[in-house]
Write a structure and sequence with these properties.
Keywords: Coiled coil, Membrane, Transmembrane, Transmembrane helix. InterPro entries: Beta-barrel_RND_2, MdtA-like_BSH, RND_pump_MFP, YknX-like_C. Belongs to the membrane fusion protein (MFP) (TC 8.A.1) family. It holds the Pfam family BSH_RND. Strand 11 and strand 12 form a beta hairpin. The chain is an alpha+beta fold. Helix 2 packs antiparallel against helix 3 and helix 2 crosses helix 5. It has three domains: about 90 residues, Beta Barrel (conserved putative lor/sdh protein from methanococcus maripaludis s2 fold); about 130 residues, Elongation Factor Tu (Ef-tu), domain 3, CATH 2.40.30; about 140 residues. The longest helix has about 70 residues. It is built from seven helices and 21 strands. The chain is about 40% helix and about 30% strand. Strands 2-15-19-18-17-16 form a six-stranded antiparallel sheet, with no helix packed on it. It has a six-stranded antiparallel barrel with strand order 3-10-13-12-11-14. A four-stranded antiparallel sheet has the order 7-6-4-9, with no helix packed on it.
Amino acid sequence: MKINGKILFLGSTLLLFIAILISFLVPKISGTFKDSSVKKPSVKTVEIQVKMVSPSIESSGIVDPEEKVEVYFKVPGRIEKVYVEEGDHASKGKLLASLEKFQLEQEKKRFEANLDSSMAQVRLAEEKYEKARKQVEARYIEVRKHSELVNKYKEEYEKSKKTYEAKETVFKEGGISSEEANSARVEMIARMTAYENGKRDYEIVSIGMRDDDIKTAGFKVPTTDSGKLAILMDLNTKIEKAEVEVARASYRSNESLLNSAKQNLREADLYSPMEGLVIKKYKTRGDVISGSSVQGQAVVLVAKLETIYAVFNVSEKDSVKVKKGLEVDISIDVLPEVKYKGVVSKIQPYIEEKTHTLQVSAKVENKGNKLKPGMFLRTRTYAGEKMPMFEIPRSGFTETGDKQGFVFVIKEKRAYKVAVEVSETRGESILISSGLQEGDQLVVEGVSRLKEGIEVDVLKSEGSEQNQSVGQ
């Protein structure tokens, strides 16, 4: 029993020693194994540098022609033929379409006949007017002739009266016979009758040709015969003159109608008003153009494509930064290999109430006519003075909120998280306005394996030349 107790005591002591030894050695062995099995994460970095960058506004929009015209007929009718198709080139003055012309030609002939008839009426009225003027001149001469005759009759009457009175005195004294005295009396009566008849005839032929007629018409009586005759001609040919004016007015009316018919006939052919491309065909043969309104009755749409507008909207917030003359970078999704430059040339003068956006148009040279109306495009408008920023690859940035995020920089082979503020995003690059320092080694590959302060294996520092600028 004593031997067994000693053995038990020695065994217990040995087991305790072994347990203590194991507890001491296992962590060491475990740590050694662990240290030998875990590798440091590998990363790639770029050295960042300050760049002077113009702030920009990103947007999207469509291609719109600089100049486009919906071409339509100005006269009603049925389309006889359309000579172009969509995509055809249209030179200025090229025939695009024609209307049926039979009715228009008949209308033109009818007005030509009416014009000939009215011209004959004008000639007839003018001849009547000239004849009436000559008749007035003849009457004027006749009036003067009657006036002279009246004076002659008056002189003869007065002479015969004096002769009669003288013979009457001699007869009373017995110097002549009664037959001779009666003969003188008969001569006097005859001369008096001629004088009275002459006065009555003069009064009749002088109606409308008297000085009083000139005064009644509101004119001053001229002192010369030619002046009197000119006024009397106008006064006594008013009806004939009015007939001439009516005939001439009828002629002008028919002439206007004929010119309108000729113009309608000319406008039955539709020509291109400018050099361009037919980008839309609305009408075809047999379609009817009504005369009520031209709205919606365009035949084709012709557009100039050598220069186009990139039309896009910017937010109300950014609208205050936009002004004419700003440069715009333009990219087209379907033409990724081609980059375009534009200049802001038109700015809508008001903000859209529903969208709170401002429409902007940038003029772009369309080399090769690759840009087609309606194409989707993306724009970047450079607004404001250049300012210092850090441009980093998107791969090195982790977003945490609006305009907020973090990056990892390497210092003494350890990774450290740095909070940064984003100014804007440009494709695969991000512009950082604060949080970094020039010369920082920014991790661009292997970011997902990093933790704060972890030691890393930097495979290769790519340098700042890897960080290419995408903007101004």
